[in-house]
């Protein structure tokens, strides 16, 4: 779980953590899948994640609570400037 204390949000801490995480995934050639809250979604989108909103199913005894929404987001593996074996990020092979 990644969370930046509200007193330190919007100061670049989350992006520093993302920089490390996506560079490590790229180094290893891994795709990544995350769950995001509404507040974290823009950060993940800026870092190449796409996804769709989901609703968390809750037990009946907690139905009085506000439903929990999250986004299941995916980022494909990237290595040496390539996405899924295609140069660049726009799907056009420039070779």
UniProtKB/TrEMBL annotation:
One of its GO terms (molecular function) is acyltransferase activity, transferring groups other than amino-acyl groups. PROSITE patterns: GNAT. It holds the Pfam family Acetyltransf_7. Residues 1-78 form the N-acetyltransferase domain. This is N-acetyltransferase domain-containing protein.
């Amino acid at each position: 779980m990644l969370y930046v204390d509200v007193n330190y949000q919007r100061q670049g801490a989350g992006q520093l953590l993302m920089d490390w995480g996506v560079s490590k995934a790229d180094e290893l050639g891994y795709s990544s899948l995350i769950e995001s809250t509404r507040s974290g979604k823009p950060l993940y989108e800026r870092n190449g994640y796409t996804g769709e909103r989901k609703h968390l199913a809750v037990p009946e005894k907690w139905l009085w609570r506000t439903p929990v929404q999250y986004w299941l987001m995916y980022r494909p593996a990237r290595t040496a400037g390539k996405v899924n074996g295609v140069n660049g990020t726009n799907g056009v092979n420039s070779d």
